[in-house]
Specification:
This protein is α+β, with helices and mostly antiparallel strands. The protein is built from twelve helices and seven strands.
Length: 344
Amino acid sequence: MITHRLVMASALVVLSSLSAHAQQGNSIRGKVRNSSGVNMSQVIVSIETGNGSPFSQTATNNEGDFFFGGLTGTSYVVVISAPDYNPVSEHVDFVNRTGPDSPGESRTIDITLTPKSGMRSTVRSGGNFVQDVPKAARENLERAAKLLHDGQTVPAMTLMQDAIKIFPNYFEAHFALANELFKKNQLTEAIAELEQARQINPKDARVYQLFGSILMQQKKYAVAAAVFAEASRLEPLDPQYQLMRGIALIEQASLINPAQQQNAAADRASALGDAESSLLKAYQLSGKKLTSVLLQLARVYEKQGKASRAADELEHYLRDLPDAKNQSEIRAAIKKLRAPRDSP
């Protein structure tokens, strides 16, 4: 007999692999920066077919990078949106459709976001933070951004450090340096730069977002959830921070073993309940467009033993993105979640 426990365990394996699976086909990868050349993390990136139909959605990572794979068509539109920045649309065309004799093409695009107000990127929505940066320091950071664009990380970081030597309170330089240190897995040094940035401007949500990402890498999920909550408090209209808090809480719940820890069952239930609340809020804040929330909600309900609700969320995801590149894996997960609790 196949027990309900085994069915649910199999479904969890499939669900966990959805975001990691990559299909063959055309692909689009890109990077998103602001007008100062600083990488923009956790920015919503959507892809539409040439006729404007939604295809898939993702968010940039901590380096501002995004990727779409498994594309079988020849024409797409990449749409980038972020609070306080003008939206950007980029057309991407491929020569041929993919097939047995055409393994696929790859396209790379670079996107620069400009503030809606037209103000310099030294102005932040968090408290309207403005700095009078010395010209030499600003030029060093601008040169660093160009070097990063060309993949020259080490000299770019040297220029960031030079900018800080000229102007020790240079917020953007501290933050940019912290971001590069994080990418190099120099977490202690990255945290030190973030603390400098936080002391200069404690109202910039990006500082807490990056700190939360470091904590996630360190598997300190409960603290990461609290840090993402602070980022959301500073930028209450940005759905990404609520999404990241929800993910952190799911990971926190995954580490809790009710059989081995006192009060663990209650702690696990509380973490999953808070995760659900954050994810639902993220979905509402995005105007119900941040479809990746639905996959995370499915994880919550699966862990709560609510197989039917988990399957409902996955079906909702496929209704919103019928051409999703991972649809076959999602349909397999739905089938397992819908399976009878006991079957021969």
